[in-house]
Amino acid sequence: MTEKEKMLSGKIYDPSDEELAKLRLQAHKLSKMYNDTFEDEEEKREVILSKLIPDRKDGVYIQEPIQFDYGVFTSLGENFYANFNFTVLDVCPVKIGDNVLIGPNVSIMTPVHPLRYQDRNIKKKADGTLYDDEYAKPIIIGDNCWIASCVTITGGVTIGNGCVIGAGSVVTRDIPDNSFAAGNPCRVIREITEADAIELKKELF
Fold first, then answer.
1. Burial class, 155, CB count within 10 angstroms (exposed 0-12 / middle 13-18 / buried 19+)
2. pTM for the structure as a whole
3. d(CA 204, CA 202)
4. What angle, 0 to 180 degrees and rounded to 10, lies between the N-to-C axes of helices 18-35 and 42-52?
5. Half-sphere exposure of 170 (CA within 13 A, CB side)
6. Which of 28, 95, 113, 137 does the annotation list as catalytic?
7. Cα torsion at 158, 159, 165, 167 (round to 10°)?
8. Distance (Å, rounded) from C-alpha 160 to C-alpha 30?
């Protein structure tokens, strides 16, 4: 297996690998280029996103600034929206469904580092190259989700369809469909039901 194949399959891999280093550099440059654009430069942004996140459907809008580790390992569904400071470390695949709204300062973090420092610390190859042992777990966000501001989603998590994740949450475990979940660590507060329909909130009209 190549180091990229190991990485994407969740095995220990060498991040100093030349292919991976080139892909990261490309994503970091494209993220910086995107961050240097303005909202009315739609064509310029589209060109950058086509290289940074080629696997995306129609209606994607991402407010700058952004930061992607690879970009090419992230897929975005239709009508995806992300607010300021969207960070995605897509060391393992990140799959986001249709009609997902992302608040400001949201981080999607697939990497998992060893708990023991003996396994985690920087090492040196025979040629002097520095590296560390890393691995990652994929993240899936279903359709019709709202991820509120300052949420962190950790590797290995699946968030079901129709979920709302409360502001400031740290999501460390799976969240079932149609759940309102919040906290650190994030836990299900209750199910989202028809009783939450906006037309029932007369004070809003």
1. buried
2. 0.94
3. 5
4. 160
5. 2
6. 113
7. 30
8. 30
Structure tokens at 106: 């949201």
| HEC letters along the chain | CCHHHHHHCCCCECCCCHHHHHHHHHHHHHHHHHHCCCCCCHHHHHHHHHHHCCCECCCCEECCCEEECCCCCEEECCCCEECCCEEEECCCCEEECCCCEECCCCEEECEECCCCHHHHCCEECCCCCEECCEEECCEEECCCCEECCCCEEECCCEECCCCEECCCCEECCCECCCEEEECCCCEEEEECCHHHCHHHCHHHC
pLDDT of amino acid 152: 98
Is 113 one of the annotated active-site residues of the chain? Answer: yes
State how beta strands 152-154 and 135-136 pair.
Answer: unpaired
Amino acid letter, residue 69: D
Rounded Cα distance between 155 and 72, Å, is 17
Rounded Cα distance, 163 and 44, in Å: 33
What is the separation, in whole angstroms, between the first and last Cα of the chain?
Answer: 59
Q: Is the peptide bond before 54 cis (omega within 30 degrees of 0)?
A: no
Length of the chain: 205
For 180-201, what is each residue's pLDDT tens digit? 999 999 999 999 999 999 998 8
